[in-house]
Amino acid sequence: MNTEHVSAGARGDRAGLRRPFEALVRTYGPMVLRVCRVVLGPADAEDAWSETFLSALKAYPELPVDANVEAWLVTIAHRKAIDVVRARERRPVTVPEVPERPSASGRPEDWDGDLWAALGALPDKQRAAVAYHYLAGLPYREIAEITGGSTDAARRAAADGMKTLRATYGGRS
Q1: Quick check: 61 and 55 in contact, CB under 8 A?
Q2: Is the pLDDT reported for residue 79 higher than 60?
């Protein structure tokens, strides 16, 4: 067992003590939801977020104390997103597109529709790389491990995705 102390943050906790799972949800929950929203869109994000934390809860007792919790949660969210996409492809569609309705509730429906359209138009690897690097703050090495490619490919996907977003979204705030 590693005896050096690690900071209480993305990598484990001090003195080898495991934080309560509720603290992880409070700390990393908003970041995981943002990642799910970018990867899946506002409609499926909350379900993927819930599934991520249910799965994480089951596996948390076996997680090494010095593990990178943030990367671990993004990896789980990535796998849940794949499950959602696969399920979506098998689901029958009764209408070609459900109209978006504006909401003042602070829910995902309040998202800028143009931004989501620009994100949704990105290829899956680019959208994932943008979400994982720019929203979750993961290094390209960890993105490559999650998405199954090289570090250079993850860096290129994120750069190409941001270039496309700048061109299509136009840098609106």
Answers
A1: no
A2: yes
Give the DSSP per-residue string, 47-94.
HHHHHHHHHHHHHGGGS-TTSBHHHHHHHHHHHHHHHHHHHHHHS--S
pTM exceeds 0.90: no
Distance CA 38, CA 45 (A): 8
Tell me the torsion sign for CA atoms 138, 142, 148, 154: positive
Q: 75 Cβ partners below 8 Å, 6+ apart?
A: 145, 146
Q: Are 127 and 39 in contact (CB under 8 A)?
A: yes
Classify residue 138 as exposed, middle or buried by CB count within 10 Å of its CB (0-12, 13-18, 19+).
buried
Which residues sit opposite 11 in a β-bridge? 68
Task: Identify whether the C-beta of residue 35 lies closer than 8 Å to the C-beta of residue 108.
Answer: no
- 134-170 tens-digit pLDDT: 888 899 999 999 888 999 999 999 999 999 988 888 7
List, in order, residues 6 or more apart from 44 with CB less than 8 Å away: 36, 84, 88
pLDDT (tens digit per residue) in 8-64: 444 444 445 788 999 999 999 999 999 899 888 888 889 999 999 999 999 999 999
Helix (H, G, I), strand (E, B) or coil at 8: coil
Question: Do 151 and 136 form a contact (C-beta atoms < 8 A)?
Answer: no
